[in-house]
Structures are given as structure tokens and as C-alpha cells.
Specification:
There is one protein chain. By secondary structure, the chain is α/β, with parallel strands linked by helices. The chain has a single domain (7-187, 228-260), classed as Rossmann fold (3-Layer(aba) Sandwich), CATH 3.40.50.720. 48% of the residues lie in helices and 13% in strands. It has helices at residues 16-27, 40-54, 68-82, 105-133, 154-174, 192-205, 209-217, 229-239, and strands spanning 7-10, 31-35, 58-61, 87-90, 136-141, 179-186, 251-254. The chain is globular, with a radius of gyration of 18 Å. It binds nicotinamide-adenine-dinucleotide. Residues 12-18, 35-38, 64-66, 91-94, 114-115, 141, 143, 186, 188-189, 191-194 line the site of nicotinamide-adenine-dinucleotide.
Length: 261
């Protein structure tokens, strides 16, 4: 399969799953706009690496996914730079772990903005072009937490359940325009997002690091293994293919059996 004629935007792609998604789309020939935070040198190395490794064009947007105006500008600039925006991957996300009664209000607002509202703003801005060109792929990185909950993750679980609903709504609205919208819902993937929540989970559950990894994270996954970013990215590439043109409005689990239980 080739995505040589396609132009993609992956939010939150300076790290973890997003970076793997951007690289996998580029490996199939798509030009890619990457986005996210990080040290400018490291981001430039990533951006230039994608161009060099895959012979595509890669640009970087510093848009902050908590800011609606930044998101709208990022989408229109991506469209203008490459001539179209065909593949939108809403992937940026953050986590915060705390009991509900102590959950900081600003963390709730930030997680809802970055993990849920940013996808609304990006889809809203990308839709007119996709409809006009009669082709598009919208892929939202949801989570097993779009289907089931875990304690101490009130904002994250709420945002991820929300993105599953947004995906279904958008899929229905765009069904006759050649545009699909789906969620990929990974279980635990070993990325900085997971690594960073370990100290707070240790505190909230009074556990050691090893206990958190084995008794909280991997306990949820019957396979007892982490999902890899590359596995998520490979499935996203498939969703961009013509073979997946009738797959829309769905939430695809990739969670080692977590949500089967
Ligand atoms: P990560 O921390 O490695 O990457 C997150 C990315 O989002 C980074 O590029 C970061 O710079 C970017 N980002 C954060 N805030 C931003 C903002 N305000 N504006 C722009 N970019 C911003 O995390 P990850 O694990 O790769 O997570 C990616 C997505 O996958 C998230 O939506 C997360 O909820 C989801 N997810 C992760 C796991 C997991 O176990 N790691 C499981 C299920 C779902």
C-alpha cells in the first residue's frame, strides 16, 4: 500500500505513539506535519530524520493543543503547505493521576482540552477540505480507558470516553463523503506518558515501582506485555488504506485482551 499522494498531520508526535504514527505514515510515502512539545534541537532532528529516512516532506507545527486558535491555524497551515490535509491523527494527550476529591481543577480542564477538545477543533477545521476532496481519514488515539475506567484517572477516562463518542458522531456525518473516522484504543504502551504516571500511582496506591508495573499496569493486560507504539502505528496505516474504506465509526482495541475481561 502506498500513501504517496497523501498529506498527514499527527498531533502530539514529538514522542511516543505519535512519533511512531508519523514515521509509519511517512514510511508509506505520506508527507507529514508533526506537532508537540520538546527541545527544539530534538524536534528538528526528528523532523529532518523523517525527511531523510523516507524521502517525504516533513514540517513541524508548535501549536499548543490546549489552544483552539493554535489548532485551527495548524490545520490551515498544514493544508496550505502540502496542498491538502488527507489524514488527521488526533493523538496528543496527557495524564494526571489523583483521587477525585484531590484532583486539581486546572488538571481536569487541561486534560479535557488536550485529550478531547483538541480533536474537536482539529476535525472541525479539517473537515471542509476532506469533504470537498471526497477522501479523508480521521484517526483518534483513544485508549482502553475509552471503554473501561481505572480509579484516580477521572479526567483521562472522561476525555477518552468522550473521544469515542465524538468519533462515532463524525463518522456518521462524513460517511457519504469518503471520509472515515475511527479510534484506536491501546492498552498500556511503554512511553513517557506511562513512565511519568508511575510516581503518582505509587503515591495514590502506596506501592513500589515494580508493584505499579506488574500489579496495576500489566495486571490489566492478560498477555502481560506492553503494546508497542509500532503496533498502533501499523494499524493506523491500515486504516488509511482503501481496504479500510468501509471501516468507520469504530473503536478498535489493541490492549492485550484487557477489555475482553
Ligand atoms: P507521550 O507523552 O509520549 O506523547 C504525548 C505527545 O503529546 C508528545 O508529543 C507531547 O509533546 C504532546 N503534547 C502534550 N501536550 C501537548 C499540547 N498541549 N500541545 C501539543 N502537543 C502536546 O505519550 P503517548 O503515550 O505517546 O500518548 C499519545 C496518545 O496515546 C495520548 O492521547 C494517550 O492518551 C494515548 N494512549 C497512550 C497509552 C499508553 O499506554 N502510553 C495508552 C492508551 C492511549
Amino acid at each position: 500500500m502506498s500513501l504517496k499522494t497523501r498529506n498527514a498531520l499527527v498531533t502530539g508526535s514529538t514522542s511516543g505513539i505519535g512519533l511512531a504514527l508519523a514515521r509509519a505514515l511517512a514510511a508509506e510515502g505520506a508527507n507529514v506535519t508533526i506537532n508537540g512539545f520538546g527541545a527544539p534541537d530534538a524536534i528538528e532532528t526528528e523532523r529532518a530524520g523523517i525527511e531523510k529516512d523516507f524521502g517525504v516532506k516533513c514540517r513541524y507545527s508548535a501549536a499548543d493543543m490546549s489552544k483552539p486558535a493554535d489548532i485551527a491555524a495548524m490545520v490551515s497551515e498544514a493544508e496550505a503547505a502540502f496542498g491538502s490535509l488527507d489524514i488527521l491523527v488526533n493523538n496528543a494527550g496527557i495524564q494526571f493521576v489523583a483521587p477525585i476529591e484531590e484532583f486539581p481543577i486546572e488538571k481536569w480542564d487541561q486534560i479535557i482540552a488536550i485529550n478531547l477538545s483538541s480533536a474537536f477543533h482539529a476535525i472541525r477545521a479539517a473537515t471542509p477540505g476532506m469533504k470537498a476532496r471526497k477522501w479523508g481519514r480521521i484517526i483518534n488515539t483513544a485508549s482502553a480507558h475509552s471503554l473501561v475506567a481505572s480509579p484516580f484517572k477521572s479526567a483521562y477516562v472522561s476525555a477518552k470516553h468522550g473521544i469515542a463518542g465524538l468519533t462515532k458522531t463524525v463518522a456518521l456525518e462524513l460517511a457519504t463523503f469518503g471520509v472515515t473516522a475511527n479510534c484506536i484504543s491501546p492498552g498500556y504502551v511503554w512511553t513517557p506518558l506511562v513512565e511519568k504516571q508511575i510516581p503518582d500511582t505509587m503515591k495514590a496506591r502506596n506501592m513500589t515501582k515494580e508493584q505499579v508495573i506488574n500489579d496495576v499496569l500489566l495486571t490489566a493486560q492478560p498477555t502481560k506485555q506492553f503494546v508497542t507504539s509500532e503496533q498502533v502505528a501499523a494499524f493506523a496505516v491500515f486504516l488509511c488504506s482503501d481496504s479500510a474504506s468501509q471501516m468507520t465509526g469504530s473503536n478498535y482495541s489493541m490492549d492485550g485482551g484487557w477489555t475482553a475481561a
